[in-house]
Amino acid sequence: MRDAASFSQKEINPLQSIEQWEDDVLQRYPEPNQPAKAKEEYRNYNDPVRDTVREFYRLNHQYQSYDFVQEKRADFLRFNRKEMPVWQAMEFLNTLVDDSDPDIELDQLQHLLQTAESIRRDGHPDWFVLTGFIHDMGKVLCLFGEPQWAVVGDTFPVGCKFSDKIVYPEYFAANPDINNEKYNTKYGVYEHGCGMRNVTMSWGHDEYLYQITKDYLPEPALYMIRYHSFYSQHREHAYEHLMDDHDRAMFEWVNKFNPYDLYSKNPVPPNAKELKPYYEDLIAKYLPSTVKL
Ligand SMILES: [Fe+2]
Ligand SMILES: [Fe+2]
């Protein structure tokens, strides 16, 4: 596997901002009342941003192999980098500045507050609101120098055949696992209906935050956090054969969460100062006084 130090700046940060990935997901899965772009139109759309996103996926699909994920887990799941209160971790996340246009892009904290506030407005339980608020906290990985394609992007199982329902599946041709007979069959290292808890997902902000919060939040919240970028399952149902009945029940929550993540982008930024006391209370109710990153 390539040493992280050997990646160029362009390979570490192919996107101008990590929001370019989310903007792209939004084009792929527009709001139900908006006309969907034809598949070909989506893929051929001639646009420099699209080329950037394509390059991001090329790197993601090439390097997210089973061994790569195991290495990232062994490193980051030691949680030996920082320890701080959750609100402070969100402010830390907000120091993630990139080349995006500050006039049109909401910052990380604003996206999280908007997601959470629309969940709150719909009268959902408070742990659901809290989940909306923290769901992208794992993006602090970027601040630890991680490549964008190991922080964001659609996630997918590793250790078995990559589904062609994953965006830009052709780029998996460069992934070493595609030639490894342990990993390149339909089930790979897994068994039929083994349950997602036994499946290793590609590495990114979803799995990282799940591991940080797994002892503290109700299970539906943990599913939302862990699988919110797993579009090839929650939108395309490509990995039904690995799921068990419990997963199927829990993915109802993932489906419930997804529209809040994708469609609650309001141009009016929420007032973080005003909302802080409410969210500090929610954090105190469910999470420990500090988290280890
Ligand atoms: Fe996310
Ligand atoms: Fe998000």
TrEMBL record:
First-listed, main subcellular location of the protein, grouped into a coarse class: cytoplasm
Compartment list: Cytoplasm
Obligatory cofactor(s): Fe cation
Alphabetical list of Gene3D superfamilies matching this protein: Hypothetical protein af1432 (1.10.3210.10)
Organism domain of life: Bacteria
Signal peptide extent: none
Claim: Metal-binding is one of the keywords in the record: yes
UniProt keyword annotations, A-Z: Cytoplasm, Iron, Metal-binding, Oxidoreductase
InterPro entries: Inositol_oxygenase
Keyword Oxidoreductase in record: yes
Protein name: Inositol oxygenase
Organism encoding this protein: Chryseolinea lacunae
